[in-house]
Amino acid sequence: MNNQAGFSADVIGLGPILLVLLLLCIIFIVYATAKWKLHPFLSIISSTYILALGTNLIGKMKGVEGGPIIKDIGATITGGFGGIVTSIGLVIIFGTIIGKILEKTGAAVKMAEVVLRLLGDRHPAIAMSIIGWIVSIPVFCDSGYVILSSLKKSLAKRSGVNVVTLSVALSTGLYATHTLVPPTPGPIAAATNLGIGPDGLFWVILIGLVVSIPVALAGHIWARKVADKLPSTLEESTETFEEYKKRFGKLPSAWAAFGPIVVPIILLAIGSFANFPVGVNEAGDKVLLTSGFTNTVLTFLGAPVNALFIGVLLAMFTLLPKRDEENLTKLMGEGLLDSAIIIMITGAGGALGGVIKATPIADYVKSLINGNAAFVGVGALILAFLIAAVLKTAQGSSTTSLVVTSTIMMPLLPSLGLDAMAGTVPIGQMLTVMAIGCGAMVVSHVNDSYFWVVTQFSGMKLNTAYRAQTMATLVQGIVGIIVVAILGVIFL
C-alpha cells in the first residue's frame, strides 16, 4: 500500500482526476442505494473496488513514475475493513444489546414515566422532546418512536394538545441524540473513522450532548409553532398511560432503567480523567492525574468496550425479568442481528477509507486549499456538513451518511485544520463528528425509513409530514451546524 506522505509532485498532479473519480464513486453509492435499492454495504464495497481499480488504471495510463498504484487491492480493502471493525465492533454490539434490552423490558417507558412525573401535564410537548432525547441515546430512533407512540397518543388525549405537535416533539427529540451522541452506532462509527481513540469517546459523548440540546430545542419549537397547526388522521387514544404501561408488566425501577446508560458514561468519564495530564516530571514525561494500580484499574474500567460490557451486564441482571432462553438467546440474538448490519456498513466505510488513504487525493486537496482560509477550520466543518447532508438527502440513511462522510474526511483532517487539540482532547475531530452528525439529519423524507415510521404512527398525510417532519429535520440540522460553527470559532 502506498504511503500518501511519500507521493511525488507528479503523482499529486493526478489529484484532479482521482478526485473526480472519488466524486463519481460517491454518486454511485447514492444512486445504487436510492434507485437500485442496493444495500448500503454492497454499494459502498462496490464503490471501493471502483475507486481502487480506477486509481490503478489511471496510474498505468498516465505512466507517472511511482504513480498511484495500489499493489494489493485485496489487502488494502480487507485492512481498512478489519481495522475499523477491530476497533469498534464490540462497542457497537454492546451498545445495541443495551438498547434492545431497554426497548423490550419497558425500561424506555420507565424513563418516560420519570420525565412525566417531573413535568406533569403542564408541558406535554417539552416532556415528549426530553423523553425522545434521553431514549434515543441507546435506542435507535425508529424503535424508540414505535415504543413511545402509544404514550404520545395517551398524553395527547389527556392534555388536549394536537397529536402532530407531540409527534414532532418526540421524533425530533429522538433524532437529535440519534445522530450526535454515542453509544448510538452512527456517531461511534464516525468518531472511530475520524481517528478518535478510546480515550476520546467520553468527550464525543459530552460535546454530543451539548450540541444536541439546542438541536432538540429547535425541533421542539418547530413542533409548537408550526406542527401545532397541522391536522392528523390518527384516531383518538382509547387507553390511558396507566393502561399502556401494563403492556410491559411490572416496569423496572428508575435506577435499573437509567443504569445501563449512565454507568458506562460515568466509567468513560473516569477513564478519561484518570489519564488527564497534570504536569511534567524532571525527565520531561507527562504526569497523569492517577498512577500505579489506581490508574490501571480506572483505565480498564474506562475503556469503551469494557464500560459498555458492564452496561450489558447491568441491563441483563437488573432489567431482564427472567434469564432464560427467551431472554438470553432470542433477545440477545435480535441485538446481534441489529448490530451486524451497522458493523458491516461501518467496515465497508473503513475499506473505502483504506483505499482513499492509499491514493494522493488528500495531498492534492491540501495543495488545492493551501492558503485559502475559507476551507480551513470552520469552513471545513461546513464542508463536512454539506457532504453529509447531500448523502443523507439523496439516499435516506443517517448512518450511511455518517460512515461515508467521516471516511472521506479522515485523510483530509490535517489539511483542513481539523486535527486541532485542546490539551489532550481531540477537539477538531470531535467538532467534525458533530458537523457530520448535523448533516446526517438533513433531511428526513420519503427515502428514509424513519420518515415513514413517524408518518404512519402519527396519522399524517404526506404533505403534512413534509411540513412537520421533513422541515423540522432541516431546521435541526441548520441549527446544529450553527452551534458547531460557533464552537469552531472558539476552539479551532
From TrEMBL:
Coiled coil: none annotated. The keyword Transmembrane applies. It holds the Pfam family GntP_permease. InterPro entries: Glcn_transporter. The chain crosses the membrane at residues 12-34, 40-59, 80-102, 125-148, 160-181, 201-223, 254-276, 296-320, 341-361, 373-391, 398-418, 430-453, 474-491. This is GntP family gluconate:H+ symporter. Keywords: Membrane, Transmembrane, Transmembrane helix. The keyword Membrane applies. It comes from Paenibacillus sediminis.
